[in-house]
Write a structure and sequence with these properties.
The chain is an alpha+beta fold. The chain is built from 26 helices and 24 strands. The chain is about 50% helix and about 20% strand. The strands form three sheets. Strands 1, 2, 3, 4, 5, 6, 7, 8, 9, 10, 11, 12 and 13 form a 13-stranded mixed beta sheet that branches. It has a six-stranded mixed beta barrel with strand order 16-17-22-19-21-20. It has a four-stranded antiparallel beta sheet with strand order 15-23-14-24. Mean pLDDT is about 80; it is low at about 405-410 and about 410-415.
Amino acid sequence: MRYHLLFSLRSLWRFRSTAFLQIIGFVVGLGALIPVLMVLYYHISFDKFHDKADRIVRVSTRVSLPESTSIYAATSKSLAPLLKEQLADVEEVVRYRYMPASVTLGDQNLGQSYPLFADPGFFNMFSAQVVAGNIETALQTPDGLVINQTTAVRFFGEDDPIGQTVSLETPAGSFSAQVKAVIRDYPENVSFAFDMATSYSHVENAMSDNPGALVPGNFTYLLMKARTDEAGLAEELASITEKHFPEGMRDVISLLPVAFTEVHYTSGHQFDSGRKGSKLNDLALGVLAIFLLLVSIANYVNLATALLMRRSKELAIRKIMGEAVGQQYAQLLVESVCMLSLVILLINVLTFFLVPEIEAMLNITLRTGLFTGVTYYLFTFFFGLAVAGISSIIPFWLVSRTISVTNLKGAAAGHSKLSLRYGLLGLQLIVSVLFAVIALGMDEQLRFIKNKDLGFSKEHVVTMSITDPQVNAKADAIKQAFLQQSYVKAASISLTPITGDHVRAQFRLGADSTGATPMMNANYVDADFDEVYEVKLVAGRFFSKEFSSDIGRAFVLNKKAVELFGFDSPEAAIGETFSKVVADSLNTGTIIGVMEDYHFQSLYQELEPMIWQIVPAASRNLLAVKLDEGDVEEQKKKLSTVLNDLGITQEVEFTSLTDALDIAYREDDRLSFFIRISAGVIVLISLLGVFGLAAFILETRRKEMGIRKLLGADLWHIMTQMGRPFAVVLAVGLVVGGPLSYYFLGNWLNSFAFHVSASWWYIPAAAILIGVLMATSVYRQVNKAAATNPAEVLREE
């Protein structure tokens, strides 16, 4: 072993330039591969923290109307007892919902929290790591409270939290609760987490018993006795609605089972929460990881076979002297392990500094599960060892079959060996073109998203939640105080922000009970809403404080809503009688204005109807502020000072509207980031392959180059002769990689309702970029060879 080690170190030093290229190629390739694997692991392990995740099912509600169909993640509160009674294969049924609360400890105000109100069986269904107390009985009584470690430190500092009693004031009422258990904070890659959890009984009476009364944020989950077929469960749920729902509701409402492991990937369900992923993006990351690994190995094999051919005389002598093939392989394996050990060390150093930057950029925690502590280093070690074994077997197997006494005469590499190396290089260039083109297209689409006119003003708009009861009670005073500041242009209070999920209600033309009643998006706003968001008016007017009739009896529709009700033009809708269906009655008023359509949903979705109304009795959850063009962060601090002056002691966060909009495309930004980085890495590795292959070919054709120079060939002639095969390989890469890239890019672009077209110039741009870099690499090698005295080369024979 000592002999193999010493000989390996001597060989690596002797061929240090090629070894350097091999090391750099692996460090760059695997250094990019590991963060990709981390992100992929983050998504595919989503919700796997819960031990019973594969037996948990969420129940969503489908509302089917003649004009539209919508799916809600929410259910009515009365559904859970019915399902527990009717479903034989169910072990547990749990409801939970969040509600804002002001928390106090004696006379001390602890600030605002968003407790989770859950049924007693919650911790039988969902996992939690208990630090202190008894979690099994914590929610059995109304006064039970479970908090996480962060909240325990925030509320009680170093004191023991178990047994401490706090008071909570919520929109559903006030109550006291005693800390019965403390749990570890949930990992980031779960669909929901909480800082406090208490009994569902505190919010149950605030909701209707009507099975059709969907409550935003009221989730119902089933724990099945065994893994179940979703299709079969859907049939059972359909049978339950048919037997137990009111007659007029059976054709409208249906229940949809969603496997808990699929919740992370389920989008489009209104009132849903938690981070969302994309299986298409996961597939893209998986393919990207495979390509990074293959390109890294191909580059290593290419350079390794070239190096072995340069060492063919040495290997032939050792073979003639009786060295067994196994001994030669052991020697090459030790060399690979020595090299890969250095690679693993450099990768760990690289990822140590790189991963925190990627986490900050992508706003996720990657060092979880497999990629934490000792397991991460064990993973990189054994993964690198496996790659070392594979990467050393292939070149040795390819070269050892042809090593013979002819190698002692300086025979050049055969045509088949060159074809293999060109083939490996061609694979790298195909992948390079593929990712370079996709990166260009994704970058253009994301720039299109960021620059597209959404139909409303998003710059210099900040929002703050006013769901805290104490803050909500002072909402009007806060708004007026903000308007008195010189840097505030406008302020508005509404049910929901201008983007995201909205309430849906039924509307109809006229004041009678006949006619179509489509379910449409609605936002309950005030008279200043349009001033904050600057939505364009098409006809009529917006709400005004000068008209008392605007309160509750006036509607502003967008153009899509006007088209849905069959008006010939926006102007034709002005003054028409219009009604909102409220339970068994109609809230009748007049259409006073028509606004331009705007994108209140992401660009993945088509434009939809939207209706504004001033409804005094509606919840007021959000205050939006339009600022002037100064420093937004500084202005946020000034607004916080205004709140303090009003006696608002709760912690209030101001969210920039532009930041809120960017969240909708966070997964696409992440995928684009890795595609861009990986494209650069793959191109770099390919160039290392070109550099190494060019060096090898020049080494084997030194005599030919010497003869050509003696015959008067200039540098350009030699460059042309050397560069022609590389040009052919690049052309193959463009012919194969180009169409593939347009196919995959087109599928991704088509997932958006609004997108750019794949431009014709992507492939020429990739060809020029890669071609220039390849030509530079070949030129450096040819120029070096051309500087050699041909007489010295020919004298070697």
